[in-house]
From TrEMBL:
Residue span, Glycosyl-hydrolase 97 N-terminal domain: 29-278
Full protein name: Glycoside hydrolase family 97 protein
Pfam families listed in its UniProt record: GH97_C, GH97_N, Glyco_hydro_97
Tree of life domain: Bacteria
Keyword terms, alphabetized: Calcium, Glycosidase, Hydrolase, Signal
Organism: Mucilaginibacter rubeus
Length: 660
């Protein structure tokens, strides 16, 4: 009898403990106490709330994950344990907006068990930073489950206050993630349409949130959708069917579902939360990883001046570009194509790989070994372009050959998917590229997810409508440009085909396949090199276009990676001024939409001392002659205030260097 009584007391204590978990919210706060993530259960499963500075940003929102084995994880749930601790991480970045990152968050791991059915178990890991919240699912190996098939995540984001939304709608999951962004109130967004991430939310009280994901590894990419008036998540399905999104051997974890939060939109741009949530660098020797600027002759139509040789996929044409790079300090030359045929062997048209495509072999007449050897002597690296479907079946032999030639890196293009299979293909490409000392530039690819920390040989990604479109339409305007830093760039390095030096306005713009025009002013283009985070800045135009042109000296100087980033003026969808530091020098870039703007940002972030400021501004006649700019030099201190006058579709750049 005493044994039975003791056992009964133990059971009652356990049940009381479990019910007490469910009776109150589990509260995880940011280190500064301003952000609170509150989690609980009810008869419909797990739910959470978010408060920022005491204000409710997300009301009762669901954590929903569904498996083929047992359906939605929501029935008879009990929180069986919860542990909280503080995580502090100081780490270095080769690629990014800062070289030294400090990460501090409070972490709670919550174990949840079903009390019915097959009694599945999982844990929710929550991390709350001063600039955002992240949560993920951790599915342990368990007696009744050794593997799972995930049919979706139906997490909800029940945002309050009807915020202004900036988002990119997609028709389906097969996408290059290129399009024009929509700005509308949350209640005005069309229902049941896929929204790409990051998506920005501007609340009427002046607070901001952006939703995206971090550490996308061995999992499906996530989208948002407005369903029954509430935002929900959706996962990209595996190819050939619609039901299964992820196949996983246990234990397995989802990526982080991230909500960047701040009372300045600049806080989101400055945030390192995505890299802080990603695994540490997996490449032991990083000495060979050297970001920089590159040519991309496809954009300008492989333009060269009158020559004594026949232009084409040959040594002479590529050496024209290499010699120009060597003379003007451009780090890389990209070998892409000529006459719409790739540099490598292929028996199909339109850059699509045929049955005998082989990127380990150059076309007849192109001696890649000679190109690489000659470029190396001139201090220029060689990069190549390859369609992923041509590359992946011959991945090992192609990378072995590229390393033998001395190629530095490559653009991998036309990926257009983010299902689990494609995510794993991209991870494999990065890992094997690192073994052969190759950097990677993904095109037609999904957003970054902070993995430039893990694989710093990933220099940049496209995943956005950009200036390549100027070759065939006028969709990429300054109004389109200004949305990118507040959405796509929040995820990381943003490849945009920069460098067009034929500026035009709406009246003078013409579609040119060779030597294209770009919309906006010359200073707008210069500023994009500072505004956009991009470790591999393109210098896309024809070499002779730059020689002797005002502003080209700035392109030669501007770095592509940074030690520090500050947003000094910003209004989402209207204007942005960013200051970025490299060593002791600061670079400031400002862009605006079609309205034009006058900004007067403070420079109190500067160190003590006098700075020489080289300032490139829109000229007074820039409406008629968009390439015109005014260059002046001033003496500036941290007490100074810049007077930045940006024309319609205009910009300004400033290079600040300490006086000796």
């Amino acid at each position: 009898m005493p044994v039975f009584r003791s056992l009964l007391c133990t059971v009652m204590t356990l049940l009381f403990s479990m019910s007490s978990f469910a009776a109150k919210f589990i509260n995880t706060s940011s280190p500064d106490g301003k952000i609170k993530f509150l989690l609980n259960t009810d008869q419909n499963g797990l739910f959470y709330q978010i408060r920022f500075k005491g204000i409710l940003m997300a009301d009762k929102s669901r954590l929903n994950i569904s498996f083929k084995q047992g359906g939605l994880f929501k029935n008879s749930l009990v929180i069986s344990a919860s542990t909280t601790d503080r995580l502090i991480d100081d780490y270095n970045l080769i690629i990014g907006k800062t070289s030294k990152a400090h990460s501090e968050c409070n972490r709670t791991v919550i174990a949840v068990t079903e009390q019915s059915g097959i009694k599945r178990m999982l844990s929710i890991e929550v991390r709350v930073f001063n600039d955002g919240i992240a949560f993920r699912y951790i599915i342990p190996e368990q007696h009744q489950l050794k593997s799972v098939e995930i049919t979706d995540e139906l997490n909800t984001f029940n945002l309050t206050q009807n915020p202004e939304v900036t988002t990119l709608f997609r028709e389906n999951y097969t996408t290059s993630h290129e399009g024009i962004y929509t700005r509308a109130k949350l209640n005005e967004l069309k229902a049941d349409s896929l929204m790409d991430m990051p998506t920005l939310f501007e609340f009427p009280n002046g607070n901001y949130m952006a939703i995206t994901e971090a550490a996308l590894l061995d999992y499906a990419g996530m989208y948002l959708i407005k369903h029954n008036g509430v935002l929900e998540s959706r996962l990209s399905p595996l190819p050939g069917q619609a039901d299964i999104k992820v196949k996983a051997v246990l234990p397995h974890s989802s990526p982080w579902r991230v909500m960047m939060i701040g009372d300045r939109v600049g806080t989101l741009i400055e945030s390192n939360i995505l890299t802080s949530l990603s695994p540490s660098c997996r490449i032991k020797d990083v000495s060979w990883i050297k970001p920089g600027k590159t040519t991309f002759p496809w954009w300008n139509g492989n333009a060269i001046p009158d020559t004594s040789f026949a232009p084409g996929n040959n040594y002479e044409t590529n050496m024209y570009y290499v010699n120009w790079c060597a003379k003007y300090g451009i780090d890389y030359h990209s070998v892409v194509e000529y006459g719409l045929h790739e540099w490598y062997v292929n028996d199909s048209a339109g850059f699509q790989p045929g049955p005998n495509a082989d990127p380990s072999k150059a076309v007849p007449g192109l001696d890649m070994q000679a190109v690489c050897d000659s470029a190396k002597k001139r201090g220029v690296g060689i990069r190549v372009w390859i369609h992923w479907k041509a590359l992946y079946p011959k991945l090992d032999e192609t990378f072995t050959q590229l390393e033998k030639w001395g190629v530095s890196g490559l653009m991998c293009d036309f990926m257009d998917r983010d299902d689990q299979e494609m995510v794993n293909i991209q991870t494999e490409i990065l890992e094997k590229a690192a073994q052969h000392k190759l950097h990677i530039q993904f095109h037609g690819a999904y957003k970054p997810t902070g993995l430039s920390r893990t694989y710093p040989n990933e220099f940049t990604r496209e995943g956005t409508l950009n200036y390549e479109n100027d070759k065939w339409n006028d969709n990429v305007t300054p109004d389109a440009d200004i949305n990118i830093p507040f959405t796509r760039m929040l995820a990381g390095s943003t490849d945009y085909h920069l460098g067009g030096f034929h500026a035009a306005n709406k009246k003078t713009f013409k579609v040119h396949y060779t030597r294209p025009y770009v919309l906006g002013t010359r200073c707008h283009m210069l500023a994009m090199y500072v505004v956009l985070e991009n470790a591999l800045g393109m210098v896309c135009d024809a070499p002779e276009v730059y020689i002797g042109q005002p502003g080209f000296e700035f392109l030669q100087q501007v770095p592509t990676t940074w030690d520090e980033t500050r947003v000094i003026a910003a209004k989402a969808g209207k204007y942005l001024a960013i200051a970025r530091r490299k060593g002791a020098d600061w670079y400031i870039g400002a862009i605006t939409d079609h309205d034009g703007v006058r900004l007067n940002p403070k420079l109190d972030f500067l160190s003590d001392g006098n700075y020489n400021a080289e300032i490139y501004s829109d000229a007074k006649d820039v409406e008629q002659y968009p390439d015109n700019l005014l260059k002046e030099t001033k003496r500036i201190t941290k007490a100074s205030i810049l007077d930045m006058i940006l024309a319609s579709g205009g910009g300004q750049v400033v290079h600040l260097s300490l006086s000796k």
